[in-house]
């Protein structure tokens, strides 16, 4: 098995060298660090994975250059170091004016932005990456245990992130492989499919995607934003030319997302329906969608989603509704509304309906078995034919089923009866089951079981 990039921390006490206000020191001690721009940022040498020499020449304008690196580590193991510049708190060494830690649900979180410009040598084995840390608490010291978001702008040599690839996504003007692994905390890595030397993005762009995949939570706290390099072999010449982090406010980005696709409905019952639509695009990144519903002439926002699907419940039987969706970005720019979708709920009636209840029989790190999913006719007369819809979490895949025919459309799964179990007497029940795989460590389970 190929080893992967290990998280960019080490159990060490940070050494802070006192320097004149505008000094641009050369740091060669393994864990040496210094502040720049009046304490706004910290630059650290951070040779946490090796005993080989490394020196960095600090640029007071907001960066550094690796001037010496004697690393020669196998690329199927951990890297030698993570020389970086950061804002926030790293093992109790905190910068000035970053306003971190900040909860990801805070009103100012969406406006947090970072930029970086980098230069790469043609030799060696390394990655160029952001390392963005989240913790369930407003931690300023020690190991964060929530999510580690890594954004790889470039890599050279046979190096790869923690875990395995779970998808591909377009964010912040680029296309990225998405990798996931858990080593005591969730590591979500975004690896650019074509190298880039610069990036300008909102933190929420990538964090919202991690949340939508079940790897992070909005209640967690951003503790630090770091940009630098992981060298395995060599490293001399790796340069951060400039770095910034701060709040841009909501007026900097004025470009709205594109119009989302027209919603389509699936699994409609007498009281609910599941909508899905084609994603919007944005110059920075879409952070969510508003779902609008009209009954007659009254239009209301009935909910929001960080993905391209939404389940609306509590509807009236035999009633026609119209739905639209619109996209939002981190600066709260709003797209035009999509074309409308018309949905008519099924009749209710005194004969009653049916219910579906699911049980996870067994579960392991990369999969699970759901059995039984019990379908019960709650009506007062026999029913001929039933279907059950439910939502499958992102990254999960159905690998087998029994006693029902399953079809998948996006994240919506529809299970329909077979010939031998389609007729149910009043108050009678039948059941089916299925098996699914999931990304390692993703503990989400299917939800929203609805029977018709």
TrEMBL record:
Domain of life: Bacteria
InterPro entries: CBD2, CBM2/CBM3_carb-bd_dom_sf, CBM2_carb-bd_dom_sf, ConA-like_dom_sf, FN3_dom, FN3_sf, GH11/12, GH12
Cited PROSITE patterns: CBM2, FN3
Hydrolase listed as a keyword: yes
Domain Fibronectin type-III span(s) in chain numbering: 259-348
One Pfam family cited in the UniProt record for this chain: CBM_2
Region span, Disordered: 248-272
Keyword Ligase assigned: no
Residues annotated as domain CBM2: 347-452
GO molecular function: cellulase activity; polysaccharide binding
Gene Ontology terms describing biological process: polysaccharide catabolic process
Keywords: Carbohydrate metabolism, Glycosidase, Hydrolase, Polysaccharide degradation, Signal
Cleavable signal peptide: 1-23
The family this protein is said to belong to: Belongs to the glycosyl hydrolase 12 (cellulase H) family.
Name of the protein: Glycosyl hydrolase family 5
Organism: Nonomuraea turkmeniaca
């Amino acid at each position: 098995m190929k080893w992967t990039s290990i998280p960019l921390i080490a159990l060490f006490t940070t050494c802070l060298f006192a320097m004149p206000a505008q000094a641009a020191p050369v740091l060669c001690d393994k864990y040496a660090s210094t502040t720049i721009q009046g304490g706004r940022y910290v630059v650290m040498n951070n040779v946490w994975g090796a005993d080989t020499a490394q020196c960095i020449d600090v640029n007071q304008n907001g960066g550094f250059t690796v001037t010496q690196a004697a690393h020669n580590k196998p690329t199927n193991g951990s890297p030698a170091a993570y020389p970086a510049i950061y804002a926030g708190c790293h093992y109790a060494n905190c910068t000035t004016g970053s306003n971190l830690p900040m909860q990801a649900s805070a009103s100012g979180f969406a406006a947090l932005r970072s930029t970086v410009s980098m230069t790469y040598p043609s030799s060696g084995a390394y990655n160029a990456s952001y390392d963005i840390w989240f913790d369930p608490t407003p931690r300023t010291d020690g190991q964060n245990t929530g999510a580690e978001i890594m954004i790889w702008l470039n890599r050279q040599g046979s190096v790869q992130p923690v875990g395995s690839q779970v998808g591909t996504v377009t964010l912040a003007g680029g296309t990225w492989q998405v990798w996931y692994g858990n080593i005591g905390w969730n590591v979500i890595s975004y690896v650019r499919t074509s190298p880039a030397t610069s990036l300008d993005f909102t933190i929420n762009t990538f964090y919202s995607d991690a949340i939508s995949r079940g790897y992070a939570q909005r209640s967690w706290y951003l503790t630090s934003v770091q940009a630098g390099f992981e060298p395995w072999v060599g490293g001399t010449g790796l340069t951060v030319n400039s770095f910034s982090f701060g709040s841009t406010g909501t007026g900097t980005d004025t470009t709205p997302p594109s119009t989302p696709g027209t919603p389509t409905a699936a699994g409609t019952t007498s009281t609910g329906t599941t909508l899905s639509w084609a994603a919007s695009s944005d110059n920075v990144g879409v952070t969510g969608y508003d779902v609008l519903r009209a009954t007659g002439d009254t239009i209301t926002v009935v909910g929001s989603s960080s993905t391209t699907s939404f389940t609306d419940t509590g509807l009236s039987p035999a009633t026609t509704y119209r739905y639209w969706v619109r996209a939002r970005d981190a600066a709260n720019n709003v797209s035009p509304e999509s074309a409308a979708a018309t949905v008519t709920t099924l009749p209710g009636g005194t004969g009653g309906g049916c219910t579906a209840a699911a049980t996870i029989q067994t579960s392991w790190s990369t999969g699970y078995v759901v059995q039984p999913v019990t379908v019960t006719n709650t009506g007062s007369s026999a029913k001929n034919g039933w279907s059950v819809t439910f939502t499958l979490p992102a990254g999960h895949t159905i690998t087998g089923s029994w006693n029902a025919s399953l079809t998948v459309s996006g994240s919506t799964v529809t299970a329909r009866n077979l010939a031998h179990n389609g007729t149910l007497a009043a108050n009678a029940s039948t059941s089916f089951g299925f098996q699914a795989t999931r990304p390692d460590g993703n503990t989400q389970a299917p939800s929203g079981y609805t029977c018709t």
